[in-house]
Amino acid sequence: MTLRLLIDMNLSPSWVEVLRESGFEAEHWYRIGPGNAPDSELFAWASQNGYIVFTHDLDFGALLTATHAVSPSVFQIRTDDVSPDALAPRAIVLLHRFEPQLASGALVVVDEMRERVRILPLGNN
């Protein structure tokens, strides 16, 4: 199964080609919906269409927790430099490593030093 990634507005559209070249399906939100759409709209679209949200926005973890959602999965990068030049090699390795979890429902949070995976739904503890 190929992961389908929806790139959030807070990340460069150049991520699309980088991810596609690495074997993923990828779309940037600007090609799908309005740039000023609330996160909940992007979240709902990703869930309905089988996409994983690829973002730098912390709000998606909060949305997952508040709604106890089982989808969409979220791959959240928490670094200062979110450009593909700086982050693509690490992001691609981690997307492949956590593909089973992302495919079945997870929040993956990545920073410069480590990564954390939480299985969905969140907030049921």
Can you name the CATH architecture?
A: 3-Layer(aba) Sandwich
Strand content: 15-25%
Average pLDDT number: 94
Query: From the alpha-carbon coordinates, what is the Rg to the nearest angstrom?
Result: 13 Å
Uncertain parts: none
Q: What is the top-level CATH class?
A: Alpha Beta
Instruction: Describe the largest sheet.
Output: 6 strands, mixed
Class by SSE composition: alpha/beta
Describe this structure in words.
- There is one protein chain.
- The protein has 125 residues and is of the alpha/beta class.
- The protein has a single domain (4-119), classed as 3-Layer(aba) Sandwich (Rossmann fold), CATH 3.40.50.
- The chain has five helices and six strands, in the order βαβαβαβααββ.
- It has helices spanning 14-21, 39-49, 59-67, 84-97, 99-104; strands at residues 4-7, 25-28, 52-55, 74-77, 106-110, 115-119.
- Strands 2-1-3-4-5-6 form a six-stranded mixed sheet, sandwiched between helices.
- The longest helix is centred in the C-terminal third of the chain and has 14 residues, at 84-97.
- The chain is globular and about 35 Å long.
- The mean pLDDT is 94.
Topology record:
Layout: E1 4-7, H1 14-21, E2 25-28, H2 39-49, E3 52-55, H3 59-67, E4 74-77, H4 84-97, H5 99-104, E5 106-110, E6 115-119
Parallel strand pairs: 1-2, 1-3, 3-4, 4-5
Antiparallel strand pairs: 5-6
